[in-house]
Design brief:
By secondary structure, the protein is α+β, with helices and mostly antiparallel strands. The strands form two sheets. It has a four-stranded mixed sheet with strand order 2-7-6-5, with helices on one face. Strands 1-4-3 form a three-stranded antiparallel sheet, with helices on one face.
Length: about 325
Amino acid sequence: MSATGGGDVSADKVPTRASVHDEVASALGLDEVPPDVDLFELGLDSFVAIQLAARWRRSGVRVTVEQLTSAATLAEWVQLLGADTENADGPDESAPFSLSAMQRAYLVGRGDGQPYGGVAAHYYVELDGTGLDVGRLQAAYDRVVARHPMLRARIDEAGVARPASSTGLPEIRTADLSGLSAAERAARLAATRARLENARRDLARGEMIELAVSLLPDGAHRIHLDVDMIAADAWAFGVLLEDLARGYADPGGPSAEPSHTPGEFRAAQDEFRGAAREEDSAWWAGWIDAHPDLPSAPALPLREDGDGEGARLLRCHDRLDTETSSPRLPR
């Protein structure tokens, strides 16, 4: 059945005026939402709009964040959710978008022209275990990469990201080290670690993530996972690990649709921060102009015995046992 105006959805999924009111009121923390009052004056922001759009899309209503934020009142939303939408397929996750300031900083820092540059910001972890089914892990890996567009994004020199399609996903690199001597095995594991610890992926080709497996004696294994930080920050990296573990534990389980595309999030982020950033920038510019005698910024403490070329990450580790390292409190 085609609804009066929200795209092709079944009759039981068409939202009612009451259900739209209740969801918006809950999202805004209000008991009542007047139908003709500007929703932004009632506390709506872009992040709430993203959450509501995702919730309605999951229920079968095809609506975008842009459509919600361009409509001003609850009455207009009710009409929108019951009317045909121009974007019948929902948001385009492959639409290009600009990187955030932090992502652009990572992009600049990985360039060879920077002092002590040429090093990518990335997360690398090793996970040891036993009884791994590599085929099952590959299926879970495919689901994770397909679910998160940033893991498929291609980044150009101008800092514009373009998520690619979810076809042609990367395969897990598997190395069977179980038949090697202990010394040979240790050398191969160290070589894999060194390669991934210092990885600088070709972002123009969409090389955001790599998963490798080393098979060890007695059914043991080591999983090597490396993700560029342009694709995932610390919190998102944890989400990726959880998704990978969940997909491996339950291959046939449901895979929740992300609440927004990367492009939608960046647009909402810019809108949310834009006015405050402009106001802050104007204040600081005025303050600096009013203090012309401010000293210059301090010089960074660079090493004097090199030019910074060939910078590499160095992994340092040690072990502390409870007997010798626990603090002893005075009695």
